[in-house]
Amino acid sequence: MSAVRVGDVRRVLDKAYPPHLAEKWDAVGLICGDPADEVRTVAFALDCTQEVADRAVELGADMLVVHHPLLLRGVESVAADTPKGKVVHTLIKNGVALFAAHTNADKARPGVNDKLAELVGITPGRPIVPEVPETIDKWGVHIPAGSAEQVKQALFDAGAGHIGAYSHCSFDIAGAGQFKPEEGADPVEGDIGKLHRGDEVRVEFVAPASLRATLIAALHEAHPYEEPAYDIVETAGSGNLDTALGLGRLGELPREMTLREFTQQVANALPETAWGIRAAGDPEQTVRTVAVSSGAGDSFLAAASKLGVDVYVTSDLRHHPVDEHLRAGGPAVIDTAHWASEFPWTAQASDIVEAALELDTEIISLRTDPWTISAHPKES
């Protein structure tokens, strides 16, 4: 059995949570560590605090995977006498690589929002804010029959031919091609000034538009002709919102219940914090259609309203946005601690890595929610 490397874990996580899904302001991926280093144990946590870093070292972890990027906000120094610098030095000195999957994991399927949806009791459906689907190109490439398999393999190696869970997808059409080399040409087949006809195969396949330049380069490298004949057509997206990527999820409870009952159901399902769970709306109103958004979600209040849900579950809600939302007739809202809505993702990420690679995983269950006390007046 070959050793598992940091790069192998990164590859598995990038496949599950594609980096291109991350918001432009985000900082996802490998934060520190050598991709060539061996990994026997991977630890998972929501945040990389000093306590979490120390715990990863205690566990003998070779890699730590977190949701929130350590170096996201205006870091100008990682000196060991700064808070974040101390974390980085702790990890590097003890050979622990650090990797973050943030908004890309929020949008992916399955991702952070799917885990939250399942825990509160709904089957995750469409996103609140769908990701604009990546443009897919449909290619047609004409190749001399004797070189078709070689060229196809080069294109597949460059990323072409993936449809869902299938790879090496193509359709071949046999036919005859013709051309007449003019002065200055350097034909592999045929003669200058003479019309040439030969057996060719038209190979059709799909590929992300983002790979267009890469595939054109691979085609020119592998194709025997100096001027390969090919065409590219941009296709429309599938438009299936129920399986679309994006932020948040919608779903329906198996039965109607009151907001009071559903709030308790959410509290029972999520890890406990000092903050607890609070709700805004009529406690006795019935709810069934639910929207969820892990982490800070008050920017999606209007979107949840437009979707006509009965209740919206998210975190980090503020007084004025919620007050104005309810005054405008928006759905009830349930406010959880940020950490509570996202920490369950660590089990999902751990399962994905463990299923793909032969190594050990550990979930660091330290509660990194910053709020530690919740108080109410005592009766005198």
Protein architecture, described:
With 380 residues, the chain is an alpha/beta fold. It has 3 domains: 6-107, NIF3 (NGG1p interacting factor 3)-like (Udp-n-acetylmuramoylalanyl-d-glutamate--2,6- Diaminopimelate Ligase, Chain: A, domain 1, 3-Layer(aba) Sandwich), CATH 3.40.1390; 112-126 and 246-338, 3-Layer(aba) Sandwich (Udp-n-acetylmuramoylalanyl-d-glutamate--2,6- Diaminopimelate Ligase, Chain: A, domain 1); 136-235, Alpha-Beta Plaits, CATH 3.30.70. It has 12 helices and 16 strands. The longest helix is centred in the C-terminal third of the chain and has 12 residues, at 345-356.
Tags for this entry?
Udp-n-acetylmuramoylalanyl-d-glutamate--2,6- Diaminopimelate Ligase, Chain: A, domain 1, Alpha-Beta Plaits, 3 domains, 5-stranded mixed sheet, 12 helices
> Spatial order of the strands in the main sheet?
1-4-3-2-16
Helix and strand sequence: HEEHEHEHHEEHEEHEEEHEEHEHEHHE
State the helical fraction: 25-40%
The residue-averaged pLDDT reads: 95
What profile does the largest beta sheet have? 5 strands, mixed
